[in-house]
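Researcher: Re-running this chain for the archive, since the previous output was lost when a drive failed. Same request as before.
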Amino acid sequence: MNVTVVPLLTVCSFCIASCNYIDPTVSTPTYSNTIVVECSADEKPAQWHIDVYDDLGMRPYNSYDGKLSVEGSIYALLAYNTNIEKVRIKEQEESGNMIATTDAIGNGLTFNGQPVVNMPDMLYSAFIEDYFAGNVETIEVEAQPRVFVYNIAIEITDSANIVSGCRSAMVDGLSEYVDLMTLLRSSSTVAMEVPMQLNGGKASDGTKTALGTLTTFGLPTAMASRRACRLTLRLVDGNGSVTSTAIDITDKIAENMQGGEITLSVDAGNIMSINGDIGTTIENRNEENIHIRL
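Model: Regenerated structure tokens:
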């Protein structure tokens, strides 16, 4: 009787090869990262846009709760809220980075040589540049404010009761945009219209208060490129004549770049001695100088 002897090494090799066999009909598991966007706002924005950067480039997503699961490795991600009306998110041509800015008002209007643009509404963003291998990690990012709010209160000494109201103020010397990846604010500056209102009545000491709220990306990051940031206040007398005065608020904003209170004071008797609308010309860059009521 013939007996065939199979070497033990051959049997073991067969078993190992069998264990390594992958059935092509069975899909291999895919791993994902879970992105969670947190926000420091009192009321967290409900709508978010998330750009995910991987080997293939950039993949855009939208999320209604700030949570997103994506497959594969991640090299960087940018998140920002989308419940905004005035802010525009776009790619900067020179750097390829995403920036936040606002549209110009009118047909090329300028104030003190700077474009007049919309004030931005509240924007929160987060950018991280790191490698996540896609092994079911939870990536938590904290979105921070990129637009800052300044509550303006201007105390007006008006012992002669000259002031009957005020028009919108103009603030120039503000950054045109903020880079959402580097967080640098532009050296190019713009002007913004700030609605103002005179509080009711006249104080017993002859003072009145003009109130307004400025929202802005802030001052240029580069100190060398900063120009004076001025608030041009426009006061109305009993005859309807408008007189303006420019107040430098550069230091007021620089003291608190995250927003806050700006308190100023003016004497109506000193600035309203000349009737008429002075120092508030808004120019049109394409045509002749024009004059508008704000």
